[in-house]
Write a structure and sequence with these properties.
Layout lengths: L1 E7 L2 H8 L2 H8 L3 E7 L12 E2 L9 E2 L1 H12 L8 E12 L2 H7 L4 E5 L5 E2 L1 H6 L3 E4 L9 H12 L9 H4 L19 E2 L2 E2 L9 H19 L1 H8 L1
Parallel strand pairs: 1-2, 1-6, 4-7, 5-6, 5-8
Antiparallel strand pairs: 3-4, 9-10
Length: 232
């Protein structure tokens, strides 16, 4: 079983996410156990303040180190010390998160995620606790909750037995260097828009060839970087 911890000041966002769809199934099947840690619970009373002004001046507020270290200490006392543990922090200045990273993290015994806020977090947290820093794209969002949810979703679905049909995932975009191709279902004719005849032919080899051609065409058109890797 994987233990997945999320450190956040907005636990309701994470709780809502983990109680739906594939993520909920991973809990129901006892494949992943989720534990949400409210960072405010580890801040100093009476105000339980989690942020403060930056040393050296500048705009914005900075996540204080104390509550994050305390939350981590609490988590660390709960996990098996001989198991593989990764501490993940989503940040715009991290390396790009991709499918390969999701595969690697899906093999981890204990995953800890930190949802950042404000201008940033105290660098001592990043230096001493964080093992992996990822960016989900060249843009900035208000907090780390949405990036963490995206990463958890992409990671958990790769764990064996979470998906009912893991073979289906193998044809997803980024599982190889080709993007996914077009899909069709019933009805065969909808408002004059017809399903390609090849898919109705019953000739499986020709269908596979057509599907591969469609994936190659889309990848070449939309992601020349992947197309280059595919051809090397």
């Amino acid at each position: 079983m994987m233990n997945c911890y999320v450190m956040t000041i907005f636990p309701d966002i994470i709780n809502s996410f983990i109680n739906h769809s594939i993520i909920k199934k991973s809990q129901d099947k006892n494949i992943v156990k989720y534990k949400i840690k409210n960072i405010r619970d580890y801040a100093d009373p009476p105000h339980f303040k989690t942020d403060d002004y930056p040393f050296g001046g500048g705009n914005g507020m900075i996540f204080k180190p104390e509550p994050i270290f305390r939350a981590y200490d609490d988590i660390y006392s709960d996990i098996a010390k001989n198991k593989n543990t990764r501490f993940v922090f989503p940040t715009p200045d991290g390396k790009p998160f991709n499918h390969r990273a999701a595969i690697e993290l899906s093999k981890t015994d204990n995953l800890i995620f930190l949802c950042g806020h404000y201008k940033g977090i105290d660098q001592r947290v990043r230096d001493e606790l964080v093992t992996d820093e990822f960016s989900i794209g060249d843009f900035v969002v208000t907090g780390g909750e949405l990036p963490v949810c995206l990463m958890i979703d992409s990671i958990v679905r790769l764990i064996p037995d979470v998906l009912n049909n893991y073979e289906s995932a193998k044809s997803d975009s980024f599982f190889t260097d080709l993007l996914d191709g077009p899909h069709y279902t019933r009805p065969e004719n909808f408002r004059g828009l017809k399903v390609p005849d090849i898919l109705l032919s019953g000739h499986h080899e020709n269908i596979k060839k057509w599907q591969k051609e469609q994936r190659e065409r889309k990848t070449q058109d939309r992601r020349p970087d992947l197309w280059k890797k595919y051809n090397n």
